[in-house]
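Hi, here's the filled form for the chain we discussed.

Project: internal
Contact: R.S.
Residues: 469
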Amino acid sequence: MLVSDARKKLVPRKYPMPHQPAEVRRRNFNEVALGLSPETAVLEAQRCIQCKNRPCVEGCPVEIDIPTFIEQVAKGDFAAAIGTIKQKNNLPAICGRVCPQENQCEKYCTLGKKHQPVAIGRLERFVADWELARPENPVPGSLPQGRRVAVIGSGPSGLTAAADLAGMGYRVTVFEALHTPGGVLVYGIPEFRLPKAIVRREIANIERLGVEIRVNQVVGKITSVRELMAQGYDAVFIGTGAGLPYFMDIPGENLNGVYSANEFLTRSNLMKAYLFPEYLTPIRLGKRVAVIGGGNVAMDAARTALRLGAEAYIVYRRTEMEMPARREEVEHALEEGVVLELLSSPIEIRGDEEGRVRSMICQRYQLGEPDASGRRSPVPIPGSEYEMQVDTVVMAIGQGPNPLVPQTTPELKTSKWGNIVADPETGQTSMPGVFAGGDVVTGAATVILAMGAGKRAARAIDAYLRGLD
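And the returned structure, exactly as it came back:
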């Protein structure tokens, strides 16, 4: 194993959030982070200096009035705080858990210039959880205006667009291909990071706004975008995400025991393989699992494999410093026992006589000059090949846009990568009345960026239906 020389460590918070101990959580799927107490939340909120120029709002893709909600928490008025958040964000308990606040709102916090920034994400989670612990109260939507909007996909962008449009008074129907709404929130993010009970409660709140969600509706097979328009929908929003897995195109990728991260995590999360034997979803692991990649999805897959009883390895062709995963996720993975195999990448997967994975041939790398992303490019070292004994390989090297809707809607213009071409500010596509946002437009990104796209598209759909520019 190669370990990076300089590892970026998380700086401890003044008011830390409790976590399950690593030796305990590595063998269960319960949530790792346990949330702030009311007393700690108030103390953390009181650190905010209420800057007049409000820089933190600049970093929020869904435009939450962050200073106001934090001031309300500091005064102990949690009901007002969640009310402020929900003026802009209908999925706060989710965002408080999985959004990379360190690269968004907290990045712009004035306190962060010399100290730790205010823990905006943790405070958002706190007030959202506070509300979820209260008795459920129906939230009435606006009176329907008679105009109908179809939303394809119930992931973060689709749910956000649907909720905002319902709040404007439109009759919204969400068409979800899977049997459970939530998109990547339910099939991709593990229970220990985002409990599915939280997702169900947040979606139930959106349904109370008047949004209808239809599951098992594969648009592109059962119906099409053109047919939805013909059925009387005045506008369509496409938020089908990035569900097309990428592979490395190396020998042996068709062996039994090679998964895409999408399949591996879907089997574990949505199909409940982690609850064996209550659920009998097949998921073959063996003793040693290699996850290829260095992003958040790779961390999720490795930590899942560890909890399912295997030794888990992250194989990544750069160093730990270049990993695109959130720093917190890397630290949690290391604490739990995930092993980093750095400056290395597979060039071949080998199988046994029954066609099952038995090892990988990997090559060592060194870092060269920075590439277009600013990270130093990995350069293979000639003659450095070695064999790594593994039973399972999970490819977590990215995923592309779901191709089904674009393939069945020739009017939609797409990029050479298969992404729907849409205006970044409005989501307007090449097809009149059809808008798109989230990963199907940008490629795989974050939950909060997809939500921001859904919010902008909802405003644009409203303007379109009212005859405005």
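Let me know if anything looks off before we file it.
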